Amino acid sequence: MTIECPAADGSSERQTKFSGEPPMCIDVSHTYEATIVTNHGTMVAFLFSERAPRTVNSFVFLARYHYFDGLTFHRIIQDFVIQGGCPEGSGRGGPGYRFADELPKAGEYAVGSLAMANAGPDTNGSQFFVISGGSGMRLPPDYSLFGKLISGLDVLDEIQKVRTGRGDQPVDPVVIESITIAESE
């Protein structure tokens, strides 16, 4: 079964399972911004399409298929990370495919960095995290770094402070209402 690139204008119908890694749907010479609307406010991230093309391609592909719409940030640890992108909300789900790492150098993570969560080398899927503090900045370079917040650090700070329970899950859901992608040459 051929996997099609979604419409760049966001008009593709929602899809949540795929039979394999998507084809290259982005143009690495273009710039991409992701607007992440949550029930706590909006964050905007610049995506590193040149340094992490496979990761950005997958994230853009999933966002344009509305994969993230309605999912939650299921793991929140203050001064560390907020993590989302799991279709089950359990931290174990994914889009039906995995892809290879595009790892940064040590010390490149910063507050607001977007990186892929994984279950070991080359197991990237749909789960991503946003570094929310110093503990996250000290992570080893084992996670594909693919973007950085350019606005919404106040929203990130608010989200990282929500009350959590068992497994670092928020007591009240922190919902990703939508992720839309802006592309420019």
Account of the protein in words:
The chain is built from 3 helices and 8 strands. Strands 3-4-6-5-7-2-1-8 form an 8-stranded antiparallel β-sheet. A hairpin with a 2-residue loop joins strand 1 (31-38) and strand 2. The protein has a single domain (31-184), classed as Cyclophilin (Beta Barrel), CATH 2.40.100.10. It is 13% helix and 26% strand. It is globular, with a radius of gyration of 15 Å. The longest helix is centred in the N-terminal third of the chain and has 12 residues, at 53-64. It has helices spanning 53-64, 134-137, 153-160; strands at 31-38, 41-47, 73-77, 81-84, 113-116, 128-131, 145-151, 176-184. With 185 residues, the chain is α+β, with helices and mostly antiparallel strands.
* CATH architectural label: Beta Barrel
The low-confidence parts are none
Main β sheet profile: 8 strands, antiparallel
Question: Whole-number average pLDDT?
Answer: 96
Share of helix among residues? 10-25%
Instruction: Order the strands across the largest sheet as they lie in space.
Output: 3-4-6-5-7-2-1-8
Q: Per DSSP, what share of the residues sits in E-state strands of 2 or more residues?
A: 25-35%
